[in-house]
């Protein structure tokens, strides 16, 4: 016998109810529908991960006698130019003034505490080393609550964390709602413009996002004890040369995101002597997302409260798993 939630979803499909300010879907049914869709996506992701792991283990066992371990690990070290993370190759692009300005602004805000000046940050998730805060903000009735997360992860460096966040080759492994990623402008090795399309989760409309992404090494004002600092900053862009918003089936998302990562080593250790057991990565993740379109504010906040902690744990866990058998990348 179908569950009440399933029956509600089927009833909604028959009525062709969709997202919109005049939608007749009750908020509890809207939330149930989106939650069911996200849970199904997560189940599919876990299945893909298990199948991929089994395939990798099979390949390793089949070729272990043909390749030496040292050759394998050397191939896994990304070979990047020495000026990667400096923006040197992106400075001639017309987007650079905006990229440099937004990165500087976002880094300054990320470094600020959550209890300063009564700025309205509310703790909504507290799980061990991970703490998440939000401020309630709306624009034209749409929830755009800024988010700030602080986390500490062992066994990886700041650069490794940012590498897996920035490089599109890995994005489908950890960003569960992603349907397609296109690079619409290859500005430089450390600066790309993406058009991302997300899976539709009924009754919400399908979304896409057009944004530049820049990965940078920070060399000034490091926190005491930090070995190095890397960031990835993403920001929506409306350049006329890129695909326009809201021209097809997708509603455009507008976002500003920064991931700030710091590597810490124990006393007496440096980048040459440290092992993975010595590494600590301090993470600050800040985002402001306008989802576009329309959805009930209570539903969006309930979804964010559930999904954001899952996202950060999934992503950081993925990076730790990817790096544990590889040479350390600083």
Salient structural properties:
alpha+beta, disordered N terminus, two-stranded antiparallel sheet, Alpha-D-Glucose-1,6-Bisphosphate, Chain A, domain 4, 330 residues
What does this protein structure show overall?
- InterPro entries: STARD11_START (IPR041952), START-like_dom_sf (IPR023393), START_lipid-bd_dom (IPR002913), START_lipid_transfer (IPR051213).
- Keywords: Coiled coil, Cytoplasm, Lipid transport, Transport.
- The protein is an alpha+beta fold.
- It folds into 2 domains: 26-59; 84-322, START domain (Alpha-D-Glucose-1,6-Bisphosphate, Chain A, domain 4, 2-Layer Sandwich), CATH 3.30.530.20.
- It is 34% helix and 27% strand.
- It has 7 helices and 11 strands.
- Strands 1, 2, 5, 6, 7, 8, 9, 10 and 11 form a 9-stranded mixed sheet that branches.
- The longest helix has 37 residues, at 27-63.
- The model is unreliable at 1-16 and 60-77 (pLDDT under 50).
CATH class of the largest domain: Alpha Beta
Write down the CATH topology of the largest domain: Alpha-D-Glucose-1,6-Bisphosphate, Chain A, domain 4
Q: Give a quick account of the main beta sheet: strands, pairing sense, barrel closure.
A: 9 strands, mixed
From the coordinates shown, what is the CATH architecture of the largest domain?
2-Layer Sandwich
Number of strands: 11
Ends apart, CA distance between termini: 55 Å
The stretches of 5 or more residues where confidence is low (pLDDT under 50) are: 1-16, 60-77
Count of domains: 2
């Amino acid at each position: 016998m179908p569950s009440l939630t399933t029956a509600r979803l089927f009833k909604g499909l028959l009525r062709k109810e969709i997202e919109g300010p005049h939608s007749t879907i009750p908020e509890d049914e809207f939330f149930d529908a989106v939650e069911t869709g996200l849970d199904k996506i997560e189940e599919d992701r876990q299945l893909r991960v298990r199948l991929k792991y089994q395939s990798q283990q099979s390949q390793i066992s089949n070729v272990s006698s043909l390749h030496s371990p040292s050759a394998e690990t050397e191939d896994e070290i990304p070979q990047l130019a020495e000026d990667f993370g400096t923006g040197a190759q992106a400075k001639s692009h017309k987007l650079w003034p905006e990229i440099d300005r937004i990165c500087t602004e976002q880094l300054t805000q990320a470094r600020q505490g959550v209890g300063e000046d009564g700025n309205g940050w509310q703790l909504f998730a507290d799980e061990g080393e991970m703490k998440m805060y939000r401020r309630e903000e709306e624009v034209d009735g749409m929830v755009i609550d800024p988010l700030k997360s602080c986390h500490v992860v062992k066994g990886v460096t700041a650069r490794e964390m940012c590498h897996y966040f920035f490089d599109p080759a890995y994005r489908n492994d950890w960003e569960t709602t992603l349907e397609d990623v296109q690079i619409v402008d290859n500005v430089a090795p450390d600066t790309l413009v993406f058009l991302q399309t997300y899976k539709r989760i009924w009754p919400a409309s399908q979304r896409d996002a057009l944004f530049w992404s820049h990965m940078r090494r920070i060399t000034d004002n490091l926190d005491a004890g930090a070995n190095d600092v890397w960031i990835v900053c993403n920001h929506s862009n409306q350049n006329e040369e890129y695909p326009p918003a809201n021209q097809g089936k997708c509603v455009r998302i507008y976002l500003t995101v920064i991931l700030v990562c710091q590597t810490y080593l124990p006393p007496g250790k440096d980048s040459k002597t440290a092992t993975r057991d010595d590494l600590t990565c301090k993470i600050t993740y800040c985002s402001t997302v306008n989802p576009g379109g329309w959805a009930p504010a209570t539903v969006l906040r309930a979804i964010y409260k559930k999904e954001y902690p899952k996202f950060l744990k999934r992503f950081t866990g993925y990076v730790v798993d990817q790096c544990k058998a590889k040479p350390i990348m600083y």
